[in-house]
Amino acid sequence: MIIKKDMNEEEINEFIDYALKEMTIKEKIKQMSGHDFFKLLLRDRKFGVRAYPAAGLKRLGIPPILFTDGPRGVIIPGSTCFPVSMARGASWDLELEEKIGDVIGREVRAHGGNLFGGVCINLLRHPAWGRAQETYGEDPFLIGKFGAALVKGVQKHNVMATVKHYALNSIENARFKVNVKIDERTLREVYLPHFKRCIEEDCATVMSAYNKVRGEYCGHNKYLLRDILKEEWGFKGFVHSDWMRGLKDTIGGITGGLDVEMPWSKFYGKKLKKAVENKVIPMELIDDAVIRVIRTILKFTTKIDLEFYGEDLIGCKDHVSIARIAAEKSMVLLKNEKNLLPLNVNGLKSIAIIGPLADVKNTGDHGSSNVRQSNIVTPLQGFRNLIEEKVKLSYLDGTDLELTKNLASSVDVVILIVGYTYKDEGEWIPEFKIGGDRDSLNLHKEDIELIKAISKVNPNTIVTLIGGSAIMMENWKNEVPAILMAWYSGMEGGHALANIILGKVNPSGKLPFTIPKNTSDLPFFDKNADEIEYGYYHGYTKFDKEGLEPAFPFGFGLSYTQFKYENLQIEIVSEKIIATVDISNIGKIMGEEVVQLYIGFENSKIQKPIKLLKGFTKAQLQPGEKKTVKIEVNKNDLAWYNPDKMQWDLEDIEYNLHVGGSSRAQDLLTSKFTIS
Ligand code: BGC
Questions:
Q1: In the annotation, is 183 catalytic?
Q2: Domain spanning 561-673: which CATH class is it, in words?
């Protein structure tokens, strides 16, 4: 029997029946691990320059899996380098994320790969988490929507997407050992919904996490892998391990529900074959994994016309322009006193770009998400390319403070570029001692000194922050008139920054997390923990519940224009709650507003957050324009997980519904509804 083009489900199942009869145990077990990884690594002398193989069987024509990483883009050299996921989360723009997925899907194919291991949706429980930049924020609803949009875009090109790291992988340095304790409600309501959302989007594969949950490694975790993912959610794809240390023993992995060991057969391969031959492991478990692997490979690889994916697609002009748009839509304006921004170039003679990161190619961490792209526009380069000639542009890195102060005092405006690099945060690779969780949420001492010194000599100082999550600003934020969160903004970040500061683009990003005034307001975090409990509240739910005032709330971001909200209406139509609200642009320029919908649970008889994000949309408005915006919420999204009954329950109470431009009470209109 041969594998044909465009096989439907029935044909795939027929082939699988045939293959299972035809294959030897050794061939079956080959489908359950990566191969040739070290050979290729030795040959290339570098990681990440190609897609890595797993499974496949030439004799029967089954193509191998070819894995590559993300999420900042495809990591293989030359690919389009997008802003990090956290930045994209700040765009609140799902259409854009799907487009980014579409580009990634094309580029994976053009590189010869077929599996994109880069849909990272672990929850930002604490901003010190080193890999914060790889996810989309602190809220499960937001990250679920973004993960699903990326999956949808990538899989349009018949590239298998992997959602990772399943589950509760929100500390970096301790990831190989930490045991996460969690109660059932918190697991179901806070840490798993975003994974479920991606599975509903038909995500092909799942990568298990390194850490333990309730005493069991995630790669062996029967409750997570078999009971919840495969049984309850009906996941039909395959689960593969996180690399190198994701699997700890043969029997644990196979009984726990891990289908494929990556990137090589340390515990599967010969050891697994032996376990089957010795009847320690029943053949049915092997067959189940093999069925999952072959079914997924065939589903994705028989539908593809590879001639559409030429190498000229990789990092092409169209893709790079999407990277620029993503950077522009993700930057968050946090402070803008006296409307210093946008700069009015007509009245300006001189600008100084200052700071240690002003002319650094800084796209984020140097771990598995590092896109190998050298064509990166730094902030300085962005201004040089876009500023009009009549404005004098100077640059200093800020190391000589006296010299820098002299320059700063002589120019009209200073743009300071400070923050982090891969040395401060990112994936923790013990061998290289880079990245990891942050020990402090403050800027470096030198950056703070620079901000304080420069703002004293020039009142028009704009601070631009580079980083992957919250940065504390309390000890300097009152000394500067303008602050912009620019993230690790990808290969076009410099152009995006210049466009925003010079007013060619109106900022529209909103924070996908809470920035605290005091770090003591955050949940407990220990980067070296052997064990930790993840509680029900973190981020804005914790701030709301404890009545804490953040420095900048979840969902907050300024624009160069202002929006007015009025006339909030609610209609219940069968299984949906439909909210409409009128929004007007009452400023002088076109702008985009992220409209957020929160459900308020103040009347709940059980322990619940004060409110939860349950909908959002982005609206574009011309000056003076008024639009009616509609946001729908599924009734089921209001359910809570009843741990006694082990089921989702809907409470029959009066709910509050809030709509507005941030999670802060003063930015929200409120109305009430019941669902009975
Ligand atoms: C990371 C994964 C990555 C894998 C392969 C692991 O160490 O945790 O996110 O996909 O390496 O590079």
A1: no
A2: mainly beta
